[in-house]
Amino acid sequence: FLLRNTRRVIREAAKKSCFICYKMGASITCCETGCDRTFHLPCAPGGECVTQYFGAYRSFCWEHRPQQAVQARPSQDNTCSICLDTVEHTISYKTMACPACQDTRFHRHCIQRLALHAGIGFRCPCCLNQEPFMTEMLTMGIRLSKRAPSWESDQAVGPSDQRHGRCDAAMCLCPGGREHTEEEGPWQLWLCTSCAAEGTHRHCSSLESSSYSWECNIC
C-alpha cells in the first residue's frame, strides 16, 4: 500500500508546476483549505513559503503562512540582535521577533543558524525566554536541532564523526522512509553543500541527475 501511495504522489507531483519557478514536479502543496499553490522545497525561501518542521510537516504559501502577532514599538532599535545589521521596520517573512520580550528583532536566516547551533539550548538571544520562544519559532518555520549546543561539543571545532542521515524534505516520497538511503539513483541522500545539517533524497527535492550540489532552504 505504501509503495502504491508513493507512486501515486510522484505521478501527481509530476503534473504540478511550482508557482515560484514555474517548472514541473512540485510535490509540496499549501495546507490552507482551498489553496492549490504547489512548490519545490528549494524554491520555498524565494517564494517566502513556510514549512513547519514538526508534527505533520505542514507547508504554507506566502499568502497563507502563519504570521507573528507582535506589535511594533516606536523605540525599537531596527538592528538584528544576532548579526547587528539593519532589519526591516515591520515584522515580515525575513524579519522576525521574540514573542516574549517583543523588543528583539532578527533576520530569519540568522535565527535559523542560531537554532541549529544552539540545539536543545535554543532560546531568545536577548531575554533568554525558551518555551514560548521555541514554540513560536517552530510555528514560523524555524527548524530546531535536538543536539547539544555546538559550543559545548568538540564538533564545534572539529569534523563530525556522524554524518546527517535523514531526508528533511517537507514531503518525503521514499518508500523506505526518511532514513532510507541508496548510493545512487532517486533515493540517494544529498546533504546541503553549505551546512551539511540537512539532507534530501534526490527525488524528494526534484534534483536532476546532472546536478552536483544542493543547498537547503536555510542556506
UniProtKB/TrEMBL annotation:
It comes from the Eukaryota. Pfam families: PHD_G2E3, zf-HC5HC2H. SUPFAM superfamilies: FYVE/PHD zinc finger. GO terms for molecular function: ligase activity; zinc ion binding. Residues 80-127 form the RING-type domain. One of its GO terms (cellular component) is nucleus. Gene3D superfamilies: Zinc/RING finger domain, C3HC4 (zinc finger). InterPro entries: EPHD, PHD-type_Zinc_Finger, PHD_PHF7/G2E3-like, Znf_FYVE_PHD, Znf_RING, Znf_RING/FYVE/PHD. Residues 1-65 form the PHD-type domain. PROSITE patterns: EPHD, ZF_RING_2. Keywords: Ligase, Metal-binding, Zinc, Zinc-finger. This is G2E3 ligase. It comes from Callaeas wilsoni (North Island kokako).
